[in-house]
Amino acid sequence: MAEKKATEKKATAAKKTTAAKATTTKRATCKKAVEVAVSAENAGFRAGDVYQALAAAGKAMSVAEIAKAAKIATEEVYLGTGWLLKEGKVKNEDNLVTLA
Questions:
Q1: Cα(13)–Cα(22) distance, integer angstroms
Q2: Distances (CA, A) of 5 to 2, 11, 18, 52
Q3: What is the CATH number for 73?
Q4: Is-contact 100 89, C-beta < 8 A?
Q5: Residue 36: band (very low, low, confident or very high) from pLDDT cuts 50, 70, 90
Q6: What is the DSSP string of 26-55?
Q7: Phi-psi region of 16 (alpha: psi -120 to 50; beta: other; left: phi over 0)
Q8: Which residues contact 2 (CB under 8 A, 6 or more apart)?
Q9: Domain that holds residue 69
Q10: Is residue 52 part of a domain?
Q11: Which helix (H) or strand (E) holds 5?
Q12: Domain-embedded: residue 9
């Protein structure tokens, strides 16, 4: 009987140790916040970057593709796309941005 209790205690202790290790090794990952200077000048520059990327590709592109081609952050792509949408230079086509 004493052996059974000792074995149960060891098994319970092992489970607790394993559970503790599993919870302590997890790390939270979060995206870095990108700061975008919202000014008329910066929006105009980003609009130029977006327009040039679309013109060079010659096809509709996603926001991520535009960001990669123009070497700017996705937030900056949104800023430039908003400017171009207001001017009527781009349009949305099947959730892709294309020149109008």
A1: 14
A2: 5, 10, 20, 74
A3: 1.10.10.10
A4: yes
A5: confident
A6: -----PPPPP---SHHHHHHHHHHHHHHHH
A7: alpha
A8: none
A9: 40-99
A10: yes
A11: helix 2-25
A12: no
Integer angstrom CA distances of residue 99 from 57, 72, 74, 93: 10, 19, 18, 10
pTM recorded for the entire structure = 0.66
> How many structural domains does the chain have?
1
pLDDT of residue 31: 65
Residue 66 located in a structural domain: yes
Q: What is the mean pLDDT of residues 55-82?
A: 95
Q: Is 58 within a domain?
A: yes
Q: Which tokens sit at 33?
A: 């916040």
91: phi then psi, degrees, rounded to nearest 5: -145, 165
Count of residues making up the chain: 100
Cβ atoms < 10 Å from Cβ of 53: 21
> What Å distances lie between residue 52 and 1, 3, 30, 49, 57, CA to CA?
80, 77, 31, 5, 8
